[in-house]
Design brief:
Chains A, B, C, D: Pathway: Purine metabolism; IMP biosynthesis via de novo pathway; N(1)-(5-phospho-D-ribosyl)glycinamide from 5-phospho-alpha-D-ribose 1-diphosphate: step 1/2. The structure is a homotetramer of 466-residue chains. Chain A contains 15 helices and 24 strands. Chain A is of the alpha+beta class. Chain A folds into two domains: 10-243, Aminohydrolase, N-terminal nucleophile (Ntn) domain (Glutamine Phosphoribosylpyrophosphate, subunit 1, domain 1); 265-316 and 329-438, 3-Layer(aba) Sandwich (Rossmann fold). The longest helix of chain A is centred in the middle third of the chain and has 15 residues, at 264-278. Residues 1-7, 85-89 and 457-466 of chain A have low confidence and may be disordered.
Chain lengths: 466, 466, 466, 466
């Protein structure tokens, strides 16, 4: 059994001092649903003890019954949405993790991935610790429980100084809420205010929904402690160069969020404009692969002057949960999600804009679908560089072997997806379009340049990496 | 208890002679999910008997477990998705309706609304008939069961000649499938072919998903009978002028569908262009209310030359099923679905495009949201005329009293929604944009000009209408 | 599909004019649970309309959640427990059957079996009636709906005069409750009073539980109508000789019930005494097959002077629902229910008392189990005559072919079950032990002497019978 | 939150080396269902890893679906049934407890109660251990995980030497099964063989069901280790005088089980005979409170010569789960379970035999019920001495304050229960009837003579005891 389990693709939300803490956390998680559709949970505090409700499923399903909120009373709460690969015993792996230890109760919600979790877990188990889950996050509470420091803050700093990797963390105790962002600041985290209440969320769109005021992003390496006495900021870690995840801008974050100092929608439009500059083509229409490709396609259209059209319609009732009939003799694949509009595509030279190519199979189906609908030419344009390296900091990517661009040339990929032409945004173009300090981003998935190394028990992950 | 229950907003799908009949019906319903999210069902035939599975819920939930298909074996199947208002005993009101009568088993799926159902039901009950549901559709099977005609076709014609209203019907028996479209042709219905199998669906997008070839639309007043011996077409009803529902083009159908001789997406773009011609305004950007307003906004932008932007981002995990926390002190309303992009709207003169205004409350919230996000001016443009009259032919509209435009002037509505200006597409402009024979559409919701009258038991609906 | 479906082995309960009508019906059904463990339901009336809740499962499971009672408000209620063989679409076959027809709402609960239901159903369907279930009970409501008589009582008499067979019926309308027992009085039914409320139940044990006073048994051919104005008794049917089901005394009814003028427990002890007189044997101990064989074994022990012991212990957590592990390489059969007590049986000559032998397989296992536990001799004694004929009046018996005594001699059966001796109670002894008028019982299962014939559509049941 | 939670009233079962390990464990638990009806679970091993399935509910419900057994594959398994008082977070408190620690996986099922669990838990938490449950059993696995001994046996001995109390334990690892009975031997545990497989169970009735051969009882202080290499017996604890729970014979064990060297049924009959000798009375009939009072009533009848009758009939569909309707204006209490047979009791002088009186409320209702049914005299006889002290070794008894005999004289109790006379079996008579070495039993519930003291964190339990 592989104990290493990255907490990929999660969203976190917390609110302190609001009589509707759990309700608002529910709404906040709802706004962050795109960061994880598999499971979700809320832990609340009424000042005396902690309460928990969590389950597999979408936020609206797990918390859709108003009776549920009786299970999570109180005026503070933290919540978590997660995506993870299926496997055994997943239901015990839902966050927040809530434990009782000698100092009382504490719960934690985590977005990111701890790269040295296996080493620390082995060490703790050798001393007699028993783990309840297979989540890397659990080592944090064990380190807290084992710490002899007298204050919660000291215990946290002692525990967090042991771990390496990407993490945004929200802790809740009977009386306090603590938000921590790792020194590299891989994942986004922001701070807001709603009346007298403080709010912390992975993305600003969650603040918008509950009409909280955006204050600022939590800074890399910052620990914010919120208690009855107010809010304090600490920087207990050694300062390092930031490594914001550039893939949040390209694909993962919601377009209406403001992260790493920019509005995602505008960044994506600029990616499209830059793509048009780098890979112009003579064509009749520009169409996006909806929904994530829409802003880049608009940018490409504006910059190139080619007309923007919706040539592919998305079925919005599709979630990740659609199950094809098992007995079926065929697979419908991308047709379940997308349908071409024949009258738009017929006889046209079409530029198709997508944000990335992973295995290439989906792009291949899309190109064929567009061509079958009557397009005379299909030109694929990708608003990011080739994804050649897996992410170890919290984005779910396949093994390197499955990434088509890690082992194929541009021409090979073009032939595989059967496009008339193919153009990726350049690495330089990407950093230019994102703007700001180019040095402050992690682009390991494009460049293989990993900001943090991987001390592991076994040899396997290294083989993928180096 | 009100026995009158319009079968509003439904979608139907059927396939004859395919070894994966139920699987494909599941996919077909999935493509028609936008026509009804409350409940769905499939009835199949293996040539010997009929099988049924139906339940409240989305198609992907009700049929998501592949084991389910063991319940609906055979090589023919019909299916139904429905929307209806909540109420008691709804679960028995799910279609298709399956009954056994003296001639064997028959099931029916219905999209539309029978306006004389109350009269016929009262008459049947007086003779001793016992009804299982409160759906108007059930009178059809009772009329069939009571008919003494010797052939199924004759019994159907005898039964259908008794009913008035809007209906697209799909029947299945042990050995046959029958599709009927009412003489006015209110609702869309199309015929396709997949290998040796015939397919019937409310919209062409359902044919696309299963890769069936579109043959043609079923014609108003046509009855198509499909059996082991092949397919036959009948026109057993008195011919009348068609009354296609123009609201299918404005809002209800999927943009990638081809109905009433046009592709919906192109019609909607043309509505936007016409709207720009009729209600030009000096502005910086055009934004849609997503998703239905997108094509019209693109058309408006193209015609006006004003830049198209996404100023409102939709949370795609929102279904009709989102339940706000009951204990909440506020209502979040449209914020649950839409979030403005501040950087796009700040300081801009904004044209907002939507497809209709019903009660006005949503439009009011959207205008305020856009203004609070920094817009200097907000100009609302609606890609259809004022909706002043309720629909009795299969679209769920509120009572006339609740329709803001039935009792308020344009200026009153503008003031209520707090827009700087407001423009509706003209009636003439609508018919021009839709194209073809202007006389062939039902526009009662805009004009009050109802193609079929309402013989009712009670006086109530008349009060609303005249 | 076989439309003929006897409503075998059911229990019914009703209460009129009590503010806790549904609660008390729940308790009444609970006391009648032994009459049917598969499904149960309650229909209540608040004077304005009828309410229903029914489901597969035991009474304590279906109604175990107190919230359920909100679904069945009002001050009158009827309920039903049923056993039936598994099959498709069973959930729609749960009683009471509730329908709306031209005169309002009515529900019915039925214990018994209508032998001419197929003929009547065919006739009704030929006129256009559509049936919702495959239960014979449903024809009653259709006959009611089709009746043109002006009063409810007249409609009922008109309907019931059409049907033949065994039936105890409880009807409820918005304002009345009606109890009917067929002219032969096959099944038991009794009337009680609880304060100002009237109660009707299959067995008196249900009155005991709710502390209602037992008034009298409902008489064969009697129709009791209870309404706001009080209670009236009618005898609308032609008088016939009674045919009380003797098997209720032998096995089916609860020992603490008083039916057909006797307490069941005392009858069963007397059956044991008579058995001892008819089939004495030199032995050390008498043991029952628990639980139903206990009173007869006590009677046998008292009459014979042989010591009564518990040599077989029953696991009381066994219901009819125990499912043996599917993958198992063996079948545990009767061991799941019964375990021998070695120290009691070792070296003893044992008389084993059971109430009947059906297929013989269970008796064979019991004899072997007792012998393996050390018994030196095993003498089987049965407190009823050989069961050679199937029941068509409401007891679930196998086909005649499966009844071992219909095709085997006493000696053949003894050898099959491997007993040292075997004795059945004689037919004469049975009637003597039951006491009273010997002519008033139906003993068709022992004698083949069926009080009512079987007009059927198909030839099959006749083959079994004659 | 009270961390102290006795694992009261449980049953355990294990089997090693059988291809149907989980199926047979299911059957074994089924036979032990009387020892705990609230929850159950199975942990199995396939030699490589452990698998778990557990849930609230009866064994037949939790494991009734044969698909379930796919979750617990392998050729060894242990299982647990439990009763416990309701409370929050009960579902996490279901056994067996399965954990992964540095040496691999281990699961444990426990019957009994550890009296120093609070002290040890506090000590472990101070070192940083995090507990998953509130069960005392969990300290055992933490002690195991913390042990540095090199072999599993040594780690177990080290851990078990820390704990005090009553325990029968079954451990399973990937490759071994270990059974341990505490040095006092409070609870029963026996060893059996089925072909080449070893079986361990709380009571012999579980061996009977699966047709395993009874070998012997596991001895007090014995640890039996079963592995691929065979079976070994160890006595690693200091020898002490045994303290078998005499209440197992009086009430708790199944009558067909053989425990502490005797068959329970025969012991109970002897208790009844001894009771007749000590408390004779002139009467007409002897009746039991079913089911547990039956053998003692038979013994009393035999010894006294008074006729044995069933005067109270038990509804066997009653479990501990029966829920009275919440809105009810009355409580039905014991009437739900028992119904008197009037014709048996009318005018009779009745001896009622029960096994114990706890609070007195049930006895009071039974006496009244018997008298209302017509008995002229009611003499209550109890087949054990007054229960005056709570149990701390694994039987669920109320606080001392609630035990009527701890604060009332015999005459006060007689008056409270409204009996004409009342007689308890004497302490001496109890020990005589049970037979064998009188010194080898724990009779603390009758005598207050507790074999093991109670080191606790808080003062509360001591107050009850001394």
């Amino acid at each position: 059994m592989n104990l290493y389990r990255p907490e990929e693709e999660c969203g976190i939300f917390g609110i302190y001092n609001h009589r509707e803490a759990s309700n608002l956390t529910y709404l906040g998680l709802y706004a962050l649903q795109h960061r994880g559709q598999e499971a979700c949970g809320i832990v609340s505090s009424d000042g005396q003890r902690l309460y928990s409700h969590k389950s597999m499923g979408l936020v609206a399903d797990v918390f859709g019954n108003p009776e549920i909120f009786r299970n999570v009373p109180g005026d503070s709460a933290i919540g978590h949405v997660r995506y993870s690969t299926t496997g055994d015993s997943v239901s015990k792996n839902i966050q927040p993790i809530l434990v009782n230890y000698s100092r009382g109760a504490i719960a934690v919600a985590h977005n990111g991935n701890i790269v040295n979790s296996q080493l620390i877990r082995a060490e703790l188990e050798a001393w007699g610790s028993i783990f309840q889950t297979t989540m890397d996050t659990e080592i944090i509470v064990h380190l807290l429980a084992a710490s002899k420091a007298s204050s919660l803050e000291e215990r946290m700093v002692e525990a967090l100084n042991r771990i390496k990797g990407a993490y945004c963390l929200l802790f809740i105790t009977e009386t306090r809420m603590v938000a921590v962002r790792d020194p590299h600041g891989f994942r986004p985290l922001c701070l807001g205010k709603l009346g007298e209440s403080y709010v912390v969320a992975s993305e600003s769109c969650a603040l918008d929904l509950i009409e909280a005021e955006f204050i600022r992003e939590v800074e890399p390496g910052e620990m914010i402690v919120i208690g009855r006495g107010g809010i304090t900021s600490h920087f207990p870690f050694k300062k390092v160069k930031p490594s914001h995840c550039i893939f949040e801008h390209v694909y993962f974050a919601r377009p209406d969020s403001y992260i790493f100092g920019k509005t995602v929608y505008l960044v994506r439009k600029e990616l499209g404009r830059q793509l048009a500059r780098e890979h112009a083509v003579d064509a009749d229409i520009v169409i996006p692969v909806p929904d994530s490709g829409v802003p880049a396609a608009m940018g490409y259209a504006e910059e190139s002057g080619i007309r923007f059209e919706l040539g592919l319609i998305r079925n919005h009732y599709v979630g990740r949960t659609f199950i094809e009939p098992a007995q079926s003799i065929r697979h419908f694949g991308v047709k379940i999600k997308l349908n071409p509009v024949r009258e738009v595509l017929k006889g046209k030279r079409v530029v198709v804009i997508d944000d990335s190519i992973v295995r290439g199979t989906t792009s291949r189906k899309i190109v064929k679908m567009v061509r079958q609908a009557g397009a005379s030419e299909v030109h694929m344009r990708i608003s990011s560089p080739p994804t050649s390296y897996p992410c170890y900091y919290g984005i779910d990517t396949p093994n390197r072997k499955e990434l088509i661009s890690s082992s194929h040339t541009l021409e090979e990929i073009r032939r595989y997806i059967t496009a008339d032409s193919l153009g990726y945004l350049s690495h330089e173009g990407l950093l230019t379009a994102v703007g700001g300090d180019k040095e402050s981003f992690c682009h390991a998935c494009f460049s293989g340049d990993y900001p943090i190394g991987f001390p592991r028990l076994g040899p396997e992950p290294q083989l993928d990496l180096f």
